[in-house]
Amino acid sequence: MEKGTKRTTIYDLAKLADASPSAVSSVLNGTWEKRRISKKLAARVMKIAEEQGYAVNVQASLLRRERSNIVGMIVPKYDNRYFGEIAEQFEVMARAKGFFPVVTCTQRDPELEFEAAKELISYQAECLISTGATDPDRISAFCSASGVQSINLDLPGKNAPSVISDNYSAAKDLTKLILDRCEEELSWSGPLRFVGGRLADHNTAARLEGFLSEHSDRGIAVPDSYIMATGYSAGKAATALDSLRPDEPTGLFVNSTISLEGVVRWYSQLHSGAELVRYGCFDWDPFGTFLPGNVGMVEQDVTMMLNKAFEVIGKVDAPTEPILVPCRLRAFPINLEI
After folding, report:
1. Which parts of the sequence belong to the HTH lacI-type domain (predicted)?
2. Can you tell me whether residue 312 is helix, strand or coil?
3. 16 to 9, 20, 26, 273: CA distances (angstroms)
């Protein structure tokens, strides 16, 4: 816009649309259906507003409304199929329920998570969903002080409702699958190695518990050196396995698709012994079915998790005990070709 050019107002739009300013305002703030304004008029107003480059002053309009209908979500990563699916489905579900969704990525940085939470609350978000947050209780405390509801997704907190996958049961099932396949195909009974994740992370701890429980049920001891929880990094997973050159059957429990990238990198560089390796991954990607040595993957039920989260929105005394959502175990026929 050139200096001195007058900004388009609601009154300008009303004149161009041959409608009242109040009708135009209702169309722009999304309340036109309640006022029984026709779809034809609403479409005409929106078209003219777009042509005129009119942008709603969000903060000013919020001050004039009783509710913002904004539901915010923070996610740690976009370059992960699981978190990407959460963000996408969240937006679709929120709009279908009459909310306006706002999603921001915080890179697993606790300070960035907190700053994002404060910013969303400044825009009068009615609810904040913290997905995979590193310090969810800090965010929940700030939300509570601000009179805003908070919900934890994927990782639990102590001070707000939490919706998470049943990591323990799914990890136990995946461990069983890998061990069974090692026995059937390699005549080998374990123990498996646990690759990826952080022991301080709730989900890793729960998965490791399920992993160890299945071994214990079979009377198999797992050496401490077999727990390779080196973080969520493909490079670190590959490095952890670098010295492993299988000359006998080997099984791996891989704790995320990020770590799986490192496992596949290591696997592809084996000059011999690749046919002796079996592994499974606690995470889901359709391409996993084509990976050599992969016997199965755990798919977290994103739709059910989000449904449970939306059921909690608006409940004053929602329980803080974690709501556990079962996962799906997907088994694959063995593929040994790289």
Report:
1. 8-65
2. helix
3. 11, 10, 16, 74
3-state secondary structure of 219: coil
What gap in Å lies between CA 88 and CA 208, rounded to an integer?
Answer: 29
Mean pLDDT score of the chain: 90
CA distances to 9, 35, 49, 68, 327 from 31, in Å: 19, 7, 16, 12, 39
Residue corresponding to tokens 């323990």:
168
pLDDT at residue 1 in the model: 39
pLDDT tens across 245-275, in order? 999 999 999 999 999 999 999 999 998 999 9
Nearby residues of 65 by Cβ (< 8 Å), 6 or more positions away: 29
The verdict on whether omega for the bond into residue 191 sits within 30 degrees of 0, i.e. cis, is: yes
Q: Which secondary-structure segment (H or E) carries 187? A: none
List CB contacts of 273: < 8 A, sequence separation 6 or more. 245, 246, 247, 250
Using a pLDDT cut of 90, give the percent of the chain over it. 73
Residue 230 pLDDT level (bands cut at 50, 70, 90): very high
- Tokens linked to 158: 């102590």
Domains and CATH numbers, the chain: 10-56 (1.10.260), 70-160 (3.40.50.2300), 167-301 (3.40.50.2300)
How many CA atoms does the CB half-sphere of 262 hold within 13 Å?
25
Identify whether the C-beta of residue 277 lies closer than 8 Å to the C-beta of residue 267: yes
Model pLDDT for residues 74-108, shown as the tens digit of each residue: 999 888 899 999 999 999 999 999 999 999 999 88
pTM: 0.79
Q: Average pLDDT of 315-319?
A: 83
Q: How many CA atoms lie within 13 A of 325 on its CB side?
A: 21
Query: Which of 165, 146, 23 lies closest to 86, judged by CA?
Result: 165
SS3 131: strand
